[in-house]
Write a structure and sequence with these properties.
Its EC number is 2.7.13.3. The protein has 4 domains: about 220 residues, Rhopdopsin 7-helix transmembrane proteins (Up-down Bundle); about 110 residues, PAS domain (Beta-Lactamase, 2-Layer Sandwich), CATH 3.30.450.20; about 90 residues, Single alpha-helices involved in coiled-coils or other helix-helix interfaces; about 130 residues, Histidine kinase-like ATPase, C-terminal domain (Heat Shock Protein 90, 2-Layer Sandwich), CATH 3.30.565.10. It is an alpha+beta fold and about 575 residues long. Helix 2 runs antiparallel to helix 8, helix 3 packs parallel to helix 6 and helix 13 packs across helix 16. The termini are far apart.
């Protein structure tokens, strides 16, 4: 009678395992947790089938097959159960491939010992049709299985102590499910009962887990793979199933809404109504929290928590792979600082309007300064170009006066040169006034203009030597114009103030620096009085973050040294 009842229970256990496995293969969300659950069901089926064969078989070989099937399930059941517990609680060791691999290696080793028992007799000492006497390997196998199950129970208990609401209930069910096989197997091993109900107890345990799945939907509504992210995000998040139960709360939610202790969405909605500040009541938002929604819903609420907090609320529906509603996710993002900033910006906007009026007044002043700056630029250009022209023109005219009555042909030639100089000066004056730069110059044009400058002064008895050490380096147009203006002003000053008749101009580029040297043989000076021309040269060089130095020994000669970084205007 007892055997018949045991076979019936084992058969029912096996059929239940098949049914649950098929159901979750068809309808469960694919995850490691689900697969480990299904593997447990498969092992229960194998254990039950092997035990049935062992009980009813009268054939030695068939009974041996039953014992081998039963041994396979025993070797791996504890390992799979431990792995399932670690996955469910998101234990870090579940991701340790070496540890999990080692556990399964132990299971494989145990099963090899069972298959090779004929050679060593470690698993069972006597194997007969009517009796089996187990050996030391069986004891070790049983001990390891107890270790696995006890560890699973410890992990579940430790996890449940940290949870609240439905998740705590889920964990309690799983703890009970873990303890049942331990009790059943202990009663059998200690000979309190004659029939081994261990596979049946495992089946009952998995049935309890299945009930937890149907009742709390923890394998559908809350995939355990996202728990770590769920608990670490800054937003306060609560998961609600389609029965109106709060399934889970993340750490931020528990900390923010620490006064709320309920487990249903109706209680939470009532709590929010009591805490809301202001006259605005978002009916659509509150209804979506209470009843759910098929489309995302967003809104804002101000709640009387810690001197008032403003939250951006987002309600997202949860659907399974068949697009069926299984719950919703409600997130509360604290935007209090943002709202305070918006209010401050509104006040600042008023202040900016007043400031804008004042800026308009300042703009008028800046326009006047711009006019003054342009006036100074034009004055500098006129001084550089016209001053040079007039100085040269005076020298030519003085030569013509000296030639009058002595060398009329040379006098006429001087007058022609003076006329040409006057026309060129008039042209440069117009260019300065209309802010039109002379034609593109480049390095070659710079030295062509310097050669032309030397040729112009040659007729007045002024010798200008130009040394080009730039090699193949290119000087851009803006820098070229600056260098020419400096040379032009320096030559004019040498002739006008120093009575020089010999001037050396040297231009070289090395060490990422353009260097200009201008040396004359005119009268020296002890003290350098910086007039408009020298100040203009300094301003031009300063534009390129360069350096200009003026020097004289006080007796004879005057020299100018200019350094301009190649990166600032020279390439």
């Amino acid at each position: 009678m007892q055997v018949t009842m045991g076979v019936g229970l084992l058969s029912g256990s096996a059929l239940l395992s098949i049914f649950i496995s098929i159901y979750f293969v068809l309808f469960g969300n694919r995850s490691k947790l689900l697969y480990s659950f299904i593997y447990c069901q498969v092992l229960i089926f194998i254990w039950s089938a092997g035990y049935i064969i062992e009980i009813i078989s009268k054939d030695f070989q068939i009974k041996y097959i039953g014992v081998c099937l039963e041994g396979f399930a025993i070797c791996f059941m504890g390992i799979i159960w431990l792995y399932f517990s670690m996955l469910y609680t998101d234990n870090i060791f579940a991701q340790n491939k070496k540890l999990i691999g080692s556990l399964f290696f132990i299971g494989v080793t145990e099963y090899i010992i069972i298959l090779t028992n004929d050679y060593h007799g470690l698993y069972y000492k006597v194997f007969e049709i009517d009796r089996i006497i187990y050996g030391i390997a069986f004891g070790i196998n049983l001990f390891l299985t107890y270790i696995y199950v006890f560890l699973s129970t410890f992990i579940m208990v430790r996890y449940s102590l940290k949870k609240i609401g439905n998740e705590k209930k889920q964990s309690i069910i799983l703890i009970i499910a873990a303890i049942i096989p331990i009790i059943a197997n202990f009663l059998y091993v200690s000979r309190k009962i004659k029939f081994d109900f261990t596979p049946v107890s495992f089946s009952i345990s998995l049935l309890l887990i299945a009930i937890a799945i149907f009742k709390y939907r923890f394998l559908n509504a809350i995939p355990t793979g996202v728990r770590k992210v769920f608990d670490t995000v800054e937003a306060s998040i609560v998961l609600i199933d389609n029965n109106g139960r709060i399934v889970s709360k993340n750490n931020s939610f528990i900390e923010t809404f620490n006064e709320y202790k309920g487990n249903t969405v109706a209680e939470f909605q009532a709590y929010l109504k009591r805490k809301m500040i202001g006259d605005i009541y978002d009916e659509l938002l509150m209804r979506a929290i209470l009843q759910g929604t098929l489309e995302p819903v967003f809104g804002e609420i101000k709640v009387d928590i810690r001197d008032g907090k403003v939250f951006r609320v987002a309600i997202q529906p949860l659907l399974d792979k068949f697009k069926r509603d299984i719950g919703r996710v409600v997130s509360f993002t604290n935007i209090t600082s943002y709202r305070e900033l918006v209010d401050q910006l509104a006040k600042k906007n008023v202040q900016l309007t007043d400031t804008n009026e004042k800026l308009k007044e300042h703009m008028l002043v800046l326009e006047e300064l711009a006019v003054l700056k342009e006036r100074n630029r034009v004055a500098r250009e006129i001084h550089d170009s016209l001053g040079h022209t007039l100085t040269f023109l005076i020298k030519v005219q003085e030569g013509a006066i000296l030639d009058f009555g002595h060398d009329n042909e040379r006098m006429i030639e001087s007058i022609k040169i003076a006329n040409k100089i006057t026309r060129q000066g008039l042209k440069e004056l117009r260019l300065s006034l209309y802010d039109i730069m002379p034609e593109k110059q480049g390095a070659n044009s710079l030295f062509e203009k310097l050669e032309r400058l030397a040729l112009d002064f040659k007729s007045s008895g002024i010798k200008i030597e130009i040394t080009d050490e730039c090699e193949d380096n290119y000087i851009n147009d803006d820098s070229s114009q600056t260098i020419f203006r400096i040379c032009q002003e320096a030559v004019t000053n040498s002739v006008r103030h120093g009575d020089a008749d010999e001037i050396h101009i040297i231009i070289k580029i090395n060490d990422k620096m353009l260097k200009l040297f201008i040396i004359d043989n005119g009268k020296g000076c002890i003290e350098i009085n910086k007039g408009y021309g020298i100040l203009g040269m300094e301003e031009r060089v300063r534009k390129y973050s360069g350096n200009i130095v003026f020097g004289s020994d006080g007796e004879s000669g005057f020299n100018i040294k200019v350094e301009i970084p190649i990166g600032d205007g020279v390439t």
